[in-house]
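Usage

Read records sequentially. Each one opens with the input sequence:
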Amino acid sequence: MVGGMIVSVVSSAALSAQAPASKGGPWSDVCSLATDAEFQKAHGVDPRIGIIPNDPVATEMVWGPHCDYSGGSIDLFTKKSPGAELDRVLGLTKGGKQRAPVQGLGDRAFFTTVYPDDQYRRRGFLAVFLGQRLVTLSMDPYQNEPLEATRPRLEGLAKLVVARLK
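and closes with the structure output:
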């Protein structure tokens, strides 16, 4: 799949080996935060045509659990300093230069983009701070759609995910 893992975050080779994510609560079982059907619905798949079968894939990243969905991902930043680790990841993805505040999610939240100039890996990106941890969601745009068009879809999905983290 083109995209993936916060758009492969500079490919997994730059981040160390990945292993299956551990189970044990919403902060470790990241793929339990949204079903693939919920992710596809948030992405805009018309349920009348049916949900495209896909099994979300969980992996453990340097910053914490990660889950790949068709068309996006969810990451939990639970290790080290989550804010600093997020800044590092955004730097690697050439993202985060413009951070638009988002109201009503967690302690604070912002929308930005990752790989904005790469037509094959570009994504909308939403970060939600929840105490000392944070959750991020990323989503592919439709073909030549502006990345900002993913923002309302990400915000809707984030409401579902944040409620499940509490």
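Summary fields computed downstream for this record:
- The two ends are 31 Å apart (CA to CA).
- Residues 95 and 114 are 4 Å apart (CA to CA).
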